[in-house]
Design brief:
Elements: E1 50-54, E2 61-62, E3 64-71, E4 76-83, H1 90-93, H2 99-102, H3 107-113, E5 118-121, E6 125-127, E7 131-136, E8 139-142, E9 145-154, E10 172-175, E11 179-182, E12 187-192, E13 198-204, E14 231-236, E15 241-243, E16 249-254, E17 260-263
Antiparallel strand pairs: 1-7, 2-6, 3-4, 3-5, 4-9, 6-13, 7-11, 8-9, 10-16, 11-15, 12-13, 12-14, 13-17, 16-17
Length: 273
């Protein structure tokens, strides 16, 4: 599998770590993060990051900004990811990426401000997970939209292409510190692939399907262009589902409407739905 990151958004929003802790209501604790190792002119927002848990996320709107840079010592391309969850009045409105703020973002101006090779603005997404916990770094202002650091990761050279390749139905292995959960009784949206693996949707977007809402996800299978051997289905959880990639890496994929899924199974989740 390629180690191209995609953390909740469309490209490389992920955070490597040497180990993962179960970040639930029992509490969270910090661990040394390997993604603090990169060096460039980008802000260093990793070292002071602290764990935080977000609840009541289902159908919560968020956006991500990615800053790309090259580490001149390691001679690698990497990306720093910033996420709006919990900011811009989102705790009250359930929308941390208000359209008036999102629409004013200028990628070229942002790249110049933060000395990035490229700034990429992801489309707004909506969480289908009920909660998440992760390391959160400094809050930065992007043309007035606040977003907080949520990880660095290696990026492929193709990430700088103006026409990135489609990741739909392709397995990507990405380093992870985030732990996410779905509560008992929640409806979840699943993809079954030809290899017998099951993927659970963690967030959706209406970028490719403008009329898509969480109430219409039940019938998403009717509009997806599923490859041979792939199936879409829904399920109602009889117990809590926790996504905790214990090896430090998670499998992710997208469908052809750019909705984001995580792999379930051994060392990925507490059970396969």
């Amino acid at each position: 599998m390629p180690t191209v990151g995609n953390r909740r958004g469309f490209w490389a929003l992920c955070a490597p770590a040497l180990g993962l802790l179960l970040l639930t209501a029992r509490g969270v604790a910090p661990s040394y993060a390997e993604d603090c190792k990169y060096f460039s002119a980008l802000p260093d927002d990793c070292a002071g990051a602290q764990y935080r848990k977000y609840d009541n996320l289902r159908d919560y709107r968020y956006a991500e900004i990615e800053l790309f840079a090259k580490d001149p010592l390691k001679k690698v391309l990497y990306v720093s990811a910033y996420n709006t969850t919990g900011l811009n009045g989102g705790d009250d409105s359930h929308d941390s990426a208000p359209a008036p703020l999102l629409q004013r973002l200028d990628p070229k101006r942002i790249a110049k401000q933060y000395q990035a090779l490229l700034a990429r603005i992801g489309p707004p997404y909506y969480w289908t997970a009920d909660w998440l916990a992760d390391r959160i770094g400094a809050v930065r202002s992007f043309d007035g939209l606040n977003a907080q650091w949520m990880g660095n990761t290696l990026a492929p050279s193709s990430a700088l292409s103006p026409k990135p390749i489609s990741l739909a139905y392709r397995t990507t292995l990405t380093a992870r510190t985030v732990v996410m959960g779905f509560k008992k009784g929640s409806v979840i949206y699943l993809l079954d692939d030809p290899k017998g693996r099951t993927w659970v949707m963690v967030s959706y977007t209406n970028k490719e399907a403008p009329d898509l809402t969480i109430d219409k996800l039940d019938s998403l299978g009717d509009v997806l262009k599923l490859p041979q051997g792939w199936k879409f289905r829904t399920a109602t959880l009889a117990k809590d589902l926790v996504l905790e990639p214990k090896a430090g890496f998670a499998g992710i994929t997208l469908d052809d409407k750019a909705n984001l899924y995580h792999l379930t199974g051994p060392r990925q989740t507490n059970f396969v739905p």
